Amino acid sequence: MNAFLYAWRSLWRNRRRTLITLTAIALSIMLVQAFHNLAVGAYARMIDDGVRAGSGHLAVYRHGYLESREENLGFSPANLAAQIRAIPGVTKVLPRVYLPALAQSSHDSRGILLIGVEPEAELTVNPFLKGLSADAMLRDIDGRDAVIGKRLLDDLKLAVGRKLVVTAQHRDGTLHSELLRVRGVVSTGMPDIDGSLLMVGRQRAALLTGMQDDIHELAIILNDSDEEAFVAAAITPLLHDRPELAAVSWEKAMPNLANAIKLDYASQKFIFVIILLIVTIGVVNTLLMSVMERLREFGVVLALGSSPGRLRRLVLIEALLLGMVAAVAGCVLGALATWYLVDIGIDLKRFIPETLEFGGVVFDPVLRAAWDLAWMAKIALYVVGLTLLAALYPAIKAGRITPVEAMRHH
Amino acid sequence: MRGEALYLPLSPYASLLTDANMPLITLSNVYKTYRHGSLEVTALTDFSLEIAEGEFIVLAGPSGSGKTTVLNLVGGLDRPSAGAVTVGALEIASASAAVLADYRLRRVGFIFQSYNLIPVLTAAENAEFTLMLQGVPRPERRRRVTELFIELGIEGLEERRPGDLSGGQQQRVAIARALAAAPGVVLADEPTANLDSHTAEELLDLMRDLNRRRGVTFLFSSHDDRVIGRARRVVRLEDGRMVGDSTTNR
Ligand SMILES: Nc1ncnc2c1ncn2[C@@H]1O[C@H](COP(=O)(O)OP(=O)(O)OP(=O)(O)O)[C@@H](O)[C@H]1O
Ligand SMILES: [Mg+2]
Fold first, then answer.
1. In sequence order, what are the residues at sequence separation of 6 or more whose Cβ sits closer than 8 angstroms to the Cβ of residue A267?
2. What's the pTM?
3. Which atom of ligand 1 is nearest to the CA of B70?
4. Which residues from chain A sit within 8 angstroms of residue B35, using beta carbons?
């Protein structure tokens, strides 16, 4: 028999109370772990979708372009695209042109942002284009094919196969127009995008301004967002003799998404803290009750010659055992919940019929968790720490017992 | 501080007292008052008593006369308000809490009226408790406890929980616990008050026997005349004062 055995048996003396406390701790661990993993999975998905629709995990810009979006701040990619494509971890390098323009049909006109892309490269990664069949996709880099947002299509009273004209300012100050033909229609469900998206081949867009092979953005898509730092470091030397250029991470290029994720996770963390706080208060209550019930027993233990320190340790060991059992149970439950959320996920379409937009990015309505094992372990350790913390006051209380009083009154 | 004694070591069987006539326990002019706010209760008034090693002595007196108070003072659970309590070389009044805890652990065995066994531990684990606190290894603990259980006639009950034992059996386990660490003094506060008279007499004979064979000093309290009648020396208390001290040749 040792202190751990004594503590363990004492813990189960009031079986029901211990089980209730244990369940509360374990469930809170499960909740926190499952929600964290769900958030991690959802954010990863959003980032993934976001970078593919937007600026990539990393993007190269001319200094000042991100801030001003001035169309004359373009640059020639020269052999940069090929060099970056050669860096391990890079999946795609996407040169893009962005031009504010006027789109006109025979019925109406709208101000839009014309996007010039390399169709072949974009097709496999751009979530806007992914859903398009081959006969709706842009065919080449300098053709007259256009992919258009559904709402813009309706606003201009167009249909597939019909013609429209885009007009933008040329570098020489005059207005230039190009004739396009609607080939594909994109419906994201996001009013902003559906009402303004107009995509054409990059060189066709360049004709409007006379920027030729210059681009505004070189979006870089990675295999895995974890490799961002490594790839960024590999790009830096490539830009040495191009001081006017800079590689920027998606967090900077898409601050809306980055901030939305940060804010969302901050509010989650706040809820986690509250959950754990409530549980800790419950544990304090349980342990305090268990100490107060055993005043006489503790008085006897002290009378038999135990030091108060030993008695305090006994209470802490009980808390430690409680915390460890709860942590193991909580991790098992948390893993089961995560497993379900990774495998099946939560289909938000059942709750919210509209398209889901978050930080300016449309995302998959099925939320799926991702495993964050290190974090799960960390939370389990935190909870063990919290139960120990919760035991401090009861332990101090136990150490203050005087045997004479305890045995006289209880 | 496990292992090393903080006061002069005093083995239970070989007294360190250089003068064999010197008492083991001395209370001289002890006063004990309890204060609860403005309320003051005097539990002992000018109480003096000397107990030699190996005595079997009972404190007799009505409820509230101060018996438990004397035992608490001798056991180092409480300190006198005035006067001196010494056990061997230890001065209770001036000893630190840590020294008193160590003294209780190594020098004193306690037996309580309501047994006070730890309910979640088995009979053997209860009896081993002070040995465990002392850091005695498990096999050695078991060996001593097994011997004691045989001596006390409770062999075979080692693995039972206190709740599954009769009052008499529980008190025997408590006696085993008090004796396991081989203390010099056993203090028993009304050890038989919760037992029927037959069991009480059996237990008393058992304690008397242990006192004779082991030379352990027994100091216990009682207000039961049949119990008191079995002691060699009877100290009578009333209202915190000694009103009688008689020794018979039993
Ligand atoms: N901790 C205490 N606080 C206040 N008063 C106390 C305390 N302990 C004892 N007393 C009082 O001191 C007096 C002596 O008490 P004590 O417990 O020593 O008597 P006793 O002879 O053991 O009585 P009993 O036979 O009821 O156990 C009583 O009046 C009691 O109420
Ligand atoms: Mg009493």
1. none
2. 0.80
3. 18
4. none
